[in-house]
Structure prediction request, 393 residues.
Amino acid sequence: MNERSLFLRYLAQTSATPIALEIVQANGSWLTDRDGKSYLDLISGISVSSLGHGQPRIVEAIKTQSERYLHLMVYGELIQSPQVRLAEKLLATLPPKLDNIFFLNSGSEAIEGAMKLAKRYTGRPHLISCHKAYHGSSHGALSLGGTEAQKQAFRPLLPGIMQIHYGSFSDLRLIDEQVAAVFVETIQGEAGIVAACPSYFKALREACDRAGALLVLDEIQCGMGRSGTFWAFEQMGILPDVLVTAKALGAGLPLGAFIAPKAIMQCLSHDPILGHISTFGGHPLSCAAALAGLELMLEEQVVEQVAMKAEKFRKGLEGIRESHLRQQGLLMALELGSFERVQQVIQKLLAQGVFMDWFLNCDTALRLAPALTINNEDIDWACEQIREAAGFD
Ligand code: PLP
Prediction:
């Protein structure tokens, strides 16, 4: 059997229509399939490969760490240099209040940890999240999800969770003294790139403070430079109590984390002891890759280039018939109006050598999340191809 048959025969499928390309090599913004055909990667593994594929410095860091040690012990017991150095460097990108980090393996896991932290710290039973939100696929994270169609088949989910409308000032009155935390994506990703205004975030912050609820910002998709600032909340003029990150954090390896003030975080270490634990959380290989990626991002001022590249995309995709672009840095959704049209354009683009997809909670828009390191020539070519596929020129 060839790889395609083995994939379809033995791997659990997540849909009836997997993309099912077999990529054999990935470098920079480009993927190559088994037949030698190249594809410009405009989704970066869903906002993961922000520094491009096969970044030599990241590959080298993984090689070096793999020769030192792999897994040694469950998270939190031994001093592992890649973990502590990464923690130090990552926390330096944040205001001093956010000074303590808990490493896990994925976004969903980090969300689960933040949910437990909020309940344990406040002693309160309720959580609030937003309609159309996506926080992950595990039971707890799914319970925070804002799309009923994804939750229905898996009930009963966690009790005590209520959704408010993202961006609605009037819904903020629902944050009361029973609420442990409000979970919000700073920029809603799977809803199709939707950003509320800074005044909403200010009101949200005030509502949480009034009720004594923690404000948890999910920057799993929009953080790590993608929005044009290192953290998207920097554009909102507020500070969260807890920040959740993953995806691009691991620079291509699995890594997630939630970050909070030490005074809040330390409650997970007592009553009960080992209140949150993980075997593989903060794996040394992932942390070594993440550290190399973070150093590279900072040294090469990758985030500083996002606004200019985003503007180039905006101009390149301007004026397309019956479409509009929602854009937050290099996190973009090209709204095409219908699922059928999106599917048609994706298939055409694949044939033209461009790799794209859509959003979980918004299937009428094309997802654009290229590597932050994409070059100008590739941006021009990408826009040309999208215009051609959508049949506008
Ligand atoms: N939160 C947001 C905003 C996401 O976009 C995702 C994944 O797409 C998650 C949480 C879940 O992360 P993971 O798939 O790593 O569990």
Summary: The CA atoms of residues 108 and 137 lie 6 Å apart. The longest helix spans residues 107-122.
